[in-house]
Amino acid sequence: MASLKTLLTKPWIWSFVGALLVWLATIAFTGGYGGGGMVTAALSLAVFTVIVGVGQMFVITLGPGNVDLSLPANIGLASAVAMKVMGGSDAMIVVGLLAALACGAAIGAINYLLIWALRIPPIIATLSASFIIQSVDISYGRGLQIKPPPGFADFTNWQVLGVPVLAILTVLFTIAAAIALQRMIYGRSVLAIGQNIRAAWLAGVNVGRIRFLTYTLSGALGGIDGALLAGYFRGANVDIGNEYLLASIAVVVIGGTSVAGGKANVPGVWGAALFLVLLLTMLNTFGVSAGVRLLLTGLIIVGVITAAGGEKAVR
Q1: For 96, 120, 247, 308, which has the most beta carbons within 10 A of its beta carbon?
Q2: What is the DSSP letter of 92?
Q3: Per-residue confidence in pLDDT tens, the chain, 315 aa
Q4: Contact between residue 52 and residue 273 where contact means Cβ atoms under 8 Å apart
Q5: pTM above the 0.70 mark?
Q6: H helices within the chain, ranges in order?
Q7: Of the candidates 40, 229, 265, which has an alpha carbon nearest to the alpha carbon of residue 152?
Q8: What is each CA distance from 46 to 19, 211, 244, in whole angstroms?
């Protein structure tokens, strides 16, 4: 009983509770039909939100005002770069992934350099960068009809016993991210900066270097996400990353990470991503119109954030 009470005090647990309730409501509506397939589909789609969500989580953990709004444009450009480099050839898959990773990392690095050199808030710097990236993407990827290599497309959709391989690999990645956050000097430095940037600096933390690495990490994860999305959806698209702007922030907050900085919850990113995907599935199953769907989505997200103690975090 005591362990259950302790578990319920964890902010991230509510994201999993929300996902479970939404899934139960959907299978109740369908009479139990398609429950397993729904979980498989949710895992497949949640992967892409989790990857960028982890990067966004590290950025937000740096403290108030830190956020990466360039992710959608980053994802779109990286998807085009990956497909163009791969050129439909299985032999170029690794090279294409590295190109997407480098593209994203460069964007992340430029984001921080804008923040540092121009002394402007991250929200303005990353939003401005996104417009420039979109322009480059439109010019670079216009009319791009290159399909992903067959082996890469198959890999992004590969399942073992109904579990997407990408989901398994992403779970391993999030475990590594959690270890880095709690056990490594870099992760502890991120938490220290978020809790009190001046105290962290006085304690010897190289604040500028850590912030640079964090924005670069977020960009790199956006880049690899763009390549994986292009493989999963069978091609690059300028708008392929549009939905991940608000989604990447929502999974961080719903998952229990404090928007005030200094506190992060990696498991909650998974729970929140599954919750959002299953919520959309539920509303589609109920035949809800697009307008009502957006309204209900917003109300439910606010409810989950409140249950997770989000109001306290915002303060």
Answers
A1: 308
A2: G
A3: 556 566 556 666 778 888 888 888 888 887 777 778 888 888 999 999 999 999 999 999 999 889 999 999 999 999 999 999 999 899 999 999 999 999 999 999 999 999 999 999 999 999 999 999 988 888 876 667 788 999 999 999 999 888 999 999 999 999 999 999 999 999 999 999 999 999 999 999 999 999 999 999 999 999 999 999 999 998 888 889 888 988 888 889 888 888 888 889 899 899 999 998 888 888 887 777 777 777 776 776 676 656 555 444 444
A4: no
A5: yes
A6: 2-8, 13-29, 35-61, 71-86, 93-118, 122-141, 150-156, 165-183, 185-195, 197-202, 207-232, 244-254, 266-285, 290-307, 310-314
A7: 229
A8: 12, 27, 11
Q: Reduce the DSSP state of residue 315 to 3 states and report it.
A: coil
Q: Residue type for 262, please? A: G
Q: Exposed, middle or buried by CB within 10 Å (0-12, 13-18, 19+), for 265?
A: buried
Q: If DSSP codes are grouped into helix, strand and coil, which group holds residue 228?
A: helix
Antiparallel, parallel or unpaired: β 159-160 and 163-164 = antiparallel
d(CA 10, CA 16): 11
Rounded CA-CA distance 99/227 in Å is 9
Contact 217, 67 (CB under 8 A): no
- Give every CB contact of residue 22 below 8 A, 6+ residues apart in sequence: 275, 278, 279, 281, 282
Is 47 in contact with 225 (CB distance < 8 Å)? Answer: no
